[in-house]
């Protein structure tokens, strides 16, 4: 049986992040021995690619002043193993559930899953940034190691063509593939070459579909208004009114004016605009 410890295997490689030489532990930005080896370093070891964390041995004195140890022979270039899948799940509100997405990502054998409850209207999505950063670190340390960002469906990543193309550019620059578990383009897609075209077509199709829904909703409301069916204040926002409100809000109309036109309370409209994905 092989008695070489994970730390021994990791230290056969210099660290691409902190530049620790072979035979030495990683170090923090403050110049102390790190408590764990940097991801980009142990990702170079095929046998550890699914671990995502390797603790620094006690004899390396984690937390103490760092010093270089005796160098060891540099390991040969590692042969890429199976692809590393990193999962991402998102839902828009606290009332929606994430478990179905998490179950699907588990069945896809994702090594690690990042999840958050946050509206797609919010530009800053911390967990999405974390999974992209981890994927980038792995590819930097092991350029030939396949890394796949896995999501259940495209809308979990972006809400319009601009965001989708930005993400496509990021994945292309980092050499990370995208896997969709459902939808018309289920499967693994490489953002290089034809993959970028796939992302663009998906985004345009989604935009056309949304515009069609908005146009039909507006036409329906106008027809009802001409027949004198204005209605009173509803107890809740329905899908049609929410679609109209979002379209008018996107054109710069104030929430107060929209709420008055739709016959809903301003606070109700604010809440639904914030919660909608």
UniProtKB/TrEMBL annotation:
CDD domains named in the record: HTH_Hin_like, SR_ResInv
Keywords, sorted A to Z: DNA recombination, DNA-binding
Start and end residues of each Resolvase/invertase-type recombinase catalytic domain: 84-228
Record-linked PANTHER family: DNA-INVERTASE FROM LAMBDOID PROPHAGE, SERINE RECOMBINASE PINE-RELATED
Annotated family: Belongs to the site-specific recombinase resolvase family.
Name used for this protein in its record: Recombinase family protein
Lineage summary: Bacteria, Bacillati, Actinomycetota, Actinomycetes, Kitasatosporales
